[in-house]
Automatic annotation (TrEMBL), chain A:
PANTHER family: HYDROGENASE-2 SMALL CHAIN (PTHR30013:SF7), NIFE / NIFESE HYDROGENASE SMALL SUBUNIT FAMILY MEMBER (PTHR30013)
Residues annotated as binding [3Fe-4S] cluster: C263, C282, C285
Name of the protein: Hydrogenase (NiFe) small subunit HydA
Required co-factors: [4Fe-4S] cluster; [3Fe-4S] cluster
GO biological process: anaerobic respiration
Source organism: Desulfoscipio gibsoniae DSM 7213
InterPro entries with a match to the protein in the record: Cytochrome-c3_hydrogenase_C, NADH_UbQ_OxRdtase-like_20kDa, NiFe-Hase_small_C_sf, NiFe_Hase_small_N_sf, NiFe_hydrogenase_ssu
Automatic annotation (TrEMBL), chain B:
GO CC aspect terms: cell envelope
Protein's name in the database: Ni,Fe-hydrogenase I large subunit
Gene3D superfamilies: Cytochrome-c3 Hydrogenase, chain B (1.10.645.10)
Organism expressing this protein natively: Desulfoscipio gibsoniae DSM 7213
Organism placement in taxonomy: Bacteria, Bacillati, Bacillota, Clostridia, Eubacteriales
Matches recorded under SUPFAM superfamilies: HydB/Nqo4-like
Length: 322, 464
C-alpha cells in the first residue's frame, strides 16, 4: 500500500465511530508485517511413530543453542514436545495456525506413518468423537504447508519403525504425500546441525539442493567412507580385529562405504565424537534401508545381505485376558 | 450437577503421544483413563535377528532414555556370553548412564514440567499457555524463565559427556556387551569433569532452589495426586565383575514392608489394551471393545506398583515423603543432585588405559533376563535365543507400570489412581491441575511399544 493512500485512509476514517479506522488498518498492517517478516520460519511439528530421539537431538543443538533457535530462527507454533499449551487448547492452536499461516508454514514430521488399520496405530490426539490419526494429520497439513521436512529416518523412509516384519505397515512421509516434495533430513537420530542447517537454508535461501533421496546435499552429498579418518587403514587393508581397535571398522560391520552423511568431520553433540571415532562401526542410520540392510550390525558389509536368517516361526506363550 | 467428560488430549510436553479421558462430577475427577495412542511393535522387530543387535536396536525404543535400553541389553548379553567386566568398564558405563540421567531429569523439570507452574513469555512455543494458577511473584517467575534457557545448555552438556565416551547421543555406540569401546584418557576424562562442573553448578544454583521454591509455593500439591504406597525398583547403577552389585538397591515397598523384588511375580495384562491373542500369538487390535491404550499393564504379585525416582529414593532411604504429585517432582531433583556427586567420584576412579572391553564369542545360555531401573523406573529385557539368533525378545518399560490401563479387576494404574479423586475447584483449572499430576510421572509413551508375556520364562530371584 502506498503511503499517500494510507494517510488518506487514516484521514477519512479518523472521525468515524466504532473503531472503523482500527478495523480497516489492522489487517493491512498485519499483512505487511507478515510479508516483511522473513526473519522467522513458522513451523508446525508433528510427532508420529518414532522414539522421540529427534526432538532430543534437536535439543542438543549448539551454535545456535535451542533457546536461540526458538527465539531467533523459527516460530514453533505447534509441537507436542515443547508447547506450553495443552489439551484442547493445543489442538485449537493447531487449527488456528494451520489456517492463519496456510501455504507459509513449514511442516516438520518426526516419525513414520503407520498405514495399517486405517492409521490407528498412531493418533496425534483424541477428540471426544474420534481419534486424529497421524495419517490424517500429515495428509491434511502436508498439503497446506509451504515446505514439508521429514526429520529422522523413520519420517524420511520408515526407519526402525518400518523394520521387518513391519506389522503396522509404517512408511515415510514421502509415501503419504506422494504428490509433493518432502525434504528428508534422515538420521537415527538426526544430527541437530543437519536439521537446524536445513531450516536455516529454507529461511535464508529457500529450498536447498537435494540428492536423489531428497536430502540436502549440504550434509548428505558424500559418503562417510570418503572422509573417514580411518580411510588410510582401509586402503592398506589394515582392519580392526575387534571392537575398540583403532584400525578400519569394515571388518566389524561398518556401513560407511554405502552411507551418505558428514559425521567424520561434523561429529556429534558439540562436535566431540562419532561412532567410528568411538571404535565402533558406522551403522548407516541415514540410509533408506536402515536398519534392515545394516543388521547384523557387527557383520562385515559384504556378508550382511547373504546372512538373512530364515524366518523362524515362533508362537508366543498363552497370554490370557485374565 | 451432572457428569462432564474431560478429554485431555494431547497431553503435551512429554515424550510420545498421550491422552487422558476423564470424568468430572461435582468438582471432582471421578474417572480417568490414560491412553497411549502409538504402537510400534518392537518385539516382533527383534525376532530372527542376531541377539548382539539388541544394544543398538532397542535403544531406538526411546529417544530420551535410549542409553538405558542399551545398558540393560548389554547386561543381558553379558549374561548370555558370560563376560567379565573390568573396573574401568564398570565406572565408565556408570558415568555414561549417570550423564543420561542428568539430561533426562533436567529436561523433564525445565522443558516439560516447569510451564505447569511458571508463566512463560507469550511467544511460540509458549503461546496460549493458559496457566490459570500462576502463583510466583514476578521476580521469581522471571528468574525461573531464565533458568529454562540455562537448563537447555546444562542438558546439552550432559549429552556431550555421553557423546565423548559413546560416540553420539541419543543412541550411543560404545556401551556394549563386555564393556566400553572407548578408552578413558586424560583429555576425555578431564573434559567430562569440566562439563560436569558446569552441570553441578546448574543443579545446585538452579534446579535445587527452583524445586524448593515450587514445592513451597505450590505446597498443596503434596496432598494432590496421591497414589497407593506400593513402590517398586529393580535397583540402579550396576557394578561388579558380573554386574551383580546395584549401587541403589532394588526393593518392593508396600506400606512400610520392604522386600526384594522377585521376577517370577511379574505378570502382564492386556484386558484393556488394544491387543488380542491370535493363534497363540499376541497381535495389536485397535478395534478391541473397551480397550483404550497401547500400553500393556505390568503387575507385581497381581498388583499395580509405582516406579521411578520417588520409588528409588524412598526404598533407598534418601527421601521420606509421601506419594503425591510434588513428592514425585521433589524426589527426582534429590536424585539428580545425588547423581552429580556419584558421577564425579566415578570419573575420578577411572584409570587411563586401553578401551575396557572384553567380549566373549560363544553364548553359554539360551535365555536370560536382565533388569535395571531407567530414569522412569523398572526396565526389563528378556531374550530367548537359538544359536545367536533371537527367537523371542521381551521388553517391559516403566511406562507399563505407571501408565497402564486398568486390569480385569478394575485396579487403577499409578497415574490413574493419582488422578481419580482430584478436586477441581473451578472449571478453568481442569487442565492445569491434571497436567501437573500427569507430568509428575515424567510420561514417555514411546516406551509403551511392547508385547508378549513373561509367564514361564523368568524364574530366578533377583540378585540384589
Ligand atoms: S571405518 Fe568404515 S567408513 Fe571408515 S574407512 Fe573403514 S569402512 Fe570406511
Amino acid at each position: 500500500m502506498k503511503k499517500e493512500k494510507f494517510s488518506e485512509l487514516c484521514r477519512s476514517l479518523a472521525q468515524s465511530k466504532e473503531h472503523e479506522l482500527t478495523r480497516a488498518i489492522l489487517p493491512i498492517v498485519k499483512k505487511q508485517m507478515l510479508k516483511n517478516n522473513k526473519s522467522k520460519l513458522p513451523v508446525i511439528w508433528l510427532e508420529t511413530n518414532d522414539s522421540g530421539d529427534n526432538n532430543i537431538s534437536f535439543m542438543n543443538t549448539t551454535f545456535p543453542y535451542l533457546g536461540q533457535v526458538l527465539s531467533d530462527m523459527i516460530d514453533l507454533l505447534y509441537s507436542n514436545t515443547f508447547m506450553a499449551a495443552q489439551g484442547p487448547d493445543a489442538l485449537n492452536i493447531l487449527n488456528q495456525v494451520s489456517s492463519l499461516y496456510r501455504s507459509r508454514f513449514t511442516l516438520v514430521v518426526e516419525g513414520a506413518i503407520p498405514l495399517n488399520s486405517n492409521g490407528l496405530f498412531c493418533s496425534i490426539a483424541l477428540t471426544p468423537n474420534r481419534p486424529v490419526t497421524a495419517l490424517e494429520a500429515v495428509t491434511t497439513l502436508g498439503n497446506q504447508a509451504q515446505y514439508v521436512v521429514a526429520i529422522g529416518t523413520c519420517a524420511s523412509f520408515g526407519g526402525v519403525t518400518a523394520a521387518r516384519p513391519n506389522i503396522t505397515g509404517s512408511v515415510g512421509v514421502r509415501d503419504v504425500l506422494s504428490s509433493r516434495k518432502v525434504i528428508n533430513v534422515s538420521g537415527c537420530p538426526v544430527n541437530p546441525d543437519w536439521f537446524v542447517g536445513t531450516l536455516a537454508h529454507l529461511l535464508m535461501y529457500g529450498l536447498p539442493e537435494l540428492d536423489k533421496l531428497n536430502r540436502p546435499n549440504l550434509f548428505y552429498e558424500y559418503t562417510i567412507h570418503r572422509h573417514c579418518q580411518r580411510r588410510s587403514y582401509f586402503d592398506n587393508k589394515d582392519f580392526a580385529e575387534k571392537l575398540g581397535d583403532i584400525e578400519c571398522m569394515f571388518s566389524q560391520g561398518c556401513v560407511g562405504p554405502r552411507t551418505n552423511a558428514d559425521c567424520p568431520y561434523r561429529q556429534w553433540v558439540n562436535y566431540v565424537s562419532w561412532p567410528v571415532k568411538a571404535n565402533t562401526p558406522c551403522i548407516g542410520c541415514t540410509n533408506e534401508d536402515f536398519p534392515d540392510a545394516s543388521t547384523p550390525f557387527f557383520m562385515p558389509l559384504n556378508e550382511k545381505v547373504s546372512s538373512r536368517a530364515p524366518q523362524v516361526l515362533f508362537k508366543g506363550k498363552e497370554l490370557s485376558d485374565e | 450437577m451432572s457428569k462432564q467428560r474431560v478429554m485431555f488430549s494431547p497431553v503435551t510436553r512429554l515424550s510420545g503421544l498421550l491422552s487422558v479421558d476423564a470424568v468430572l462430577e461435582k468438582g471432582k475427577i471421578i474417572d480417568a483413563k490414560a491412553s497411549s495412542t502409538m504402537f510400534r511393535g518392537f518385539e516382533q522387530l527383534m525376532r530372527d535377528r542376531k541377539v548382539t543387535d539388541a544394544v543398538y536396536l532397542t535403544q531406538r525404543v526411546c529417544g530420551i532414555c535410549s542409553l538405558a535400553h542399551g545398558a540393560v541389553a548389554s547386561y543381558l548379553l553379558d549374561e548370555i556370553y558370560d563376560n567379565n567386566l573390568s573396573e574401568n568398564a564398570q565406572y565408565l558405563r556408570n558415568v555414561m548412564y549417570a550423564a543420561e540421567f542428568l539430561q533426562n531429569h533436567i529436561r523433564h523439570f525445565y522443558l516439560f514440567s516447569m510451564p505447569d507452574f511458571v508463566k512463560m513469555p507469550e511467544r511460540p512455543p509458549f503461546q496460549g499457555q493458559n496457566l490459570t494458577d500462576a502463583r510466583l511473584n514476578p521476580e521469581d517467575n522471571q528468574r525461573l524463565v531464565g533458568h529454562y534457557f540455562e537448563a537447555i545448555k546444562a542438558a546439552q552438556r550432559a549429552h556431550e559427556i555421553v557423546a565423548l565416551f559413546g560416540g553420539k547421543a541419543p543412541h550411543q555406540h560404545s556401551f556394549l556387551h563386555g564393556g566400553v569401546t572407548v578408552a578413558p584418557t586424560a583429555d576425555n576424562v578431564n573434559r567430562a569433569v569440566f562439563l560436569l562442573d558446569a552441570i553441578c553448578n546448574f543443579v545446585k544454583s538452579c534446579l535445587v532452589p527452583d524445586t524448593e521454591l515450587i514445592a513451597k509455593v505450590y505446597h498443596d500439591y503434596f496432598k494432590i495426586g496421591i497414589t497407593p504406597r506400593r513402590l517398586l525398583s529393580f535397583g540402579l547403577f550396576r557394578f561388579g565383575l558380573k554386574n551383580e552389585v546395584y549401587y541403589f538397591k532394588g526393593g518392593v515397598l508396600e506400606g512400610n514392608n520392604l522386600s526384594l523384588p522377585r521376577l517370577d511375580l511379574i505378570s502382564e495384562s492386556i484386558t484393556n489394551s488394544w491387543f488380542a491373542m491370535n493363534n497363540g500369538d499376541l497381535q495389536p487390535d485397535p478395534h478391541k471393545a473397551r480397550a483404550y491404550s497401547y500400553v500393556i499393564a505390568a503387575k507385581y504379585a497381581g498388583q499395580y506398583f509405582q516406579v521411578g525416582p520417588l520409588a528409588r529414593m524412598i526404598i533407598n532411604g534418601r527421601y521420606n515423603g509421601g506419594t503425591s504429585t510434588m513428592d514425585r517432582i521433589y524426589a527426582r531433583t534429590i536424585e539428580t543432585l545425588l547423581i552429580t556427586e556419584l558421577m564425579r567420584d566415578w570419573l575420578m576412579r577411572l584409570q587411563p588405559g586401553p578401551p575396557p572391553l572384553a567380549q566373549k564369542d560363544t553364548p553359554i545360555k539360551t535365555q536370560a533376563t536382565s533388569v535395571v531401573d531407567s530414569m522412569r523406573g523398572c526396565l526389563l529385557h528378556s531374550a530367548i535365543i537359538q544359536d545367536d539368533q533371537v527367537v523371542k525378545y521381551n521388553i517391559i518399560t516403566p511406562t507399563c507400570w505407571n501408565f497402564s490401563p486398568r486390569d480385569a479387576y478394575g485396579q487403577y494404574s499409578p497415574v490413574e489412581s493419582a488422578l481419580i479423586g482430584t478436586e477441581i475447584p473451578r472449571p478453568d483449572l481442569t487442565y492445569t491441575i491434571l497436567g501437573r499430576t500427569v507430568r509428575s510421572f515424567d510420561p514417555c509413551l514411546n516406551c509403551g511399544t511392547h508385547v508378549l508375556d513373561l509367564k514361564g520364562n523368568v524364574k530366578q530371584e533377583l540378585m540384589i
